[in-house]
What does this fold into?
Amino acid sequence: MSGVVQVTGELIATRRAGAYHHLTFVAPGLAEHAKPGQFVALAVGGDTSSNLLRRCFSIHKVSPSGTYGGTVDVVISPVGPGTEWLSGLRAHDEVDIVGPLGRAFPLPKEPVPCVLVGGGYGSAPLFWLAEALRERGCHVELVLGAATESKLFGVVEARRQADGVSVTTDDGSAGTRGWVSDVLPEVITRTGAAVVYGCGPMGMLKSITDVAAAHGAVAQVAVEESMACGVGVCMTCVMPVTGNDGVTRMVRSCVEGPVFRGDRVRWDAFDDGVCRVPADALGAPNVGGH
Amino acid sequence: MAVDMSVDLGGASLPSPMMTASGCAANGRELARFFDIRELGAFVTKSVMADPRSGRGTPRMAETPSGMLNSIGLQGPGISAFIDKDLAWLHQAGARTLVSIAGNTSGEFAVVAARLRESAAFGSVVGVEVNISCPNVANRGLVFACDPLASAKVVALVREQLPRNIPIFAKLTPDVTDIVSIAQAAVKAGADGLTMINTLLGMVIDTDRLRPQVAGVTGGLSGPAVRPVAVRAVWQVKSAMREGRLPTVPIIGVGGVRTGRDALELVAAGASAVQVGTATFNDPSAPVRVGRELENLLQDKGFGCLKDAVGIAHERMA
It folds into this structure.
């Protein structure tokens, strides 16, 4: 929980990347403490903005000592008023940034083969993770999937930073036609992967967890729950996760996550954009709700 | 010269009027990463009930113009774990704590208050806020604070459980026909002060799916959008006190405060202390930043102490 800073970040680079925008901010004191899988919470719209809630993005990469001081990169998908405001920023504009937040991807102690799976721009933190894993001697393969080619992120970077890359699109516009879960079994089997890391939509993370379990691998997934604050005070980003004691609790994905062991997440509670409280969760409502 | 920002809230002497708002600050550790929580007049904890409570499913929130709708459902650890982990932490951190308590029944409020009184860290408690107005309960808007008799019963039961030197504050909802009658009932039953306002019952429809956006269907509306409602509620109750329709007790103003200017509105309407809630989600340093801004504003306007500004707008009717 330590090492978090709140800083005014100056935007020094913004560019389109397919359907997304890739932003680089100077963020003094933030880059030095960040690890792959952590995220930042950005205020949007300026001091008098009517959009009060923070927008949270996984960190794409950090450079602790660049020409401008420490920098942090994020990838955003402009789909609402906050992300559209961010995508319209120009160089030297300022944004209030809080980070690094949340728990990072745990790294294996041994140099075991790993597969990293990203859905859409969920791939953003995986390249940095791949670098950290390869520094430890791990064989690293990436699987990138999206609805269509323009919604893939980082295919070129992936080829540079991984030992192998597989691409899938729902419409077949790039790579294999289908889902990441269609190609994942072959990649795990071929590489003998011990760990599968994932970042992307809930449905994809569930299927990664299932495939990993079926092949004897551990899944570590970074969730994308909507958050209002990112720092653990609003209680909106909760999800049911089973702890070491076997008890399911509604835990905050911003402080206990965003990375969870896939087999600890109660995927059975998620359906059609809603997550129910499992009946066996600690303090679950009685019939009639609470 | 610095402005004297100290306040006396029903016997609790605090060096600052600034507080977190219940449910917008968790229980201390999270915001302690951003500022020294001892700078606050008091840290207000998330409402705690007798037993652990999961809260509702998700989605739990929707962003609204200058605000948000939340439907958390009083998630919490229960009073035992709260005392052992959260209150103990606040105590060792040196925080002055205003503990918010809630219950499904009036009896549950009393049980929670009794457990609190017996706790080892009770020395850090400067007061108890009685949350009789959370809209995120099974019976939705039909909260205790919609009914004078129900409000009075809860307040009286809690008052019996706590020593006289621990002031209790009844937290009221603005979702009533006449907030003054609720305030009268709460004070008559033993409330040493009033906290106004809780969130307003609201609802948002997800227009992609054409269904309620939050899993709890309805939720509590908060943020700068509701600030004029808070100012109005504080004004009405303070007016009634000035007219002698209820005893004068301190008011803690809360609702949509984002800047020192916003806090000054509530103070001028009659609030002796100010809580910062939803703005904390936007700026985790907001509770202390607003305090500094308020102090600067008071100094600019020539006030030597905060107390002189409390309710001043009642004397300056246009």
Notes: Chain A touches chain B at residues 1-2, 4, 6, 43, 49-54, 96, 98, 225-226, 228-229, 231-239, 249-250, 255, 269, 273-277, 281-285, 288-290 (CB under 8 Å). Residues 5-101 of chain A form a domain with the Elongation Factor Tu (Ef-tu); domain 3 fold (CATH 2.40.30.10).
